[in-house]
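hey so i finally got around to running the thing on that chain from the lab meeting. sorry it took forever, my laptop kept dying and i had to restart like 3 times. anyway pasting the input first so we r on the same page abt which one it is
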Amino acid sequence: MQAASKKTPYQGKSRCYGLFKCPKCNKEWESANSWANMGQKCRKCDTMVYPYQQRKLKKKKDGQVEKDKQHDVARCEKCQSLGHSCTEADNAYLETQDA
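ok and heres what got predicted. didnt touch it at all, straight out
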């Protein structure tokens, strides 16, 4: 049996911060809801895109972890695999150092 394919730079188990660029339409975006080997669909052309860069989330000075303004559950591969928002998936595992 073959090992799982590495589709993303980060291979940890926690949510992280990702940078995305659609190869089809060149739309770029950032998300604090990025996961290992999981993508997000481009809002412009609906292509599944995997992050080209990822880092662990950092805590802000007030102790809160950085988050996107709004997370598009319908376009997130992790949310679809869980059947609910991935923002609720790993609150116990938030990390604070760069990957």
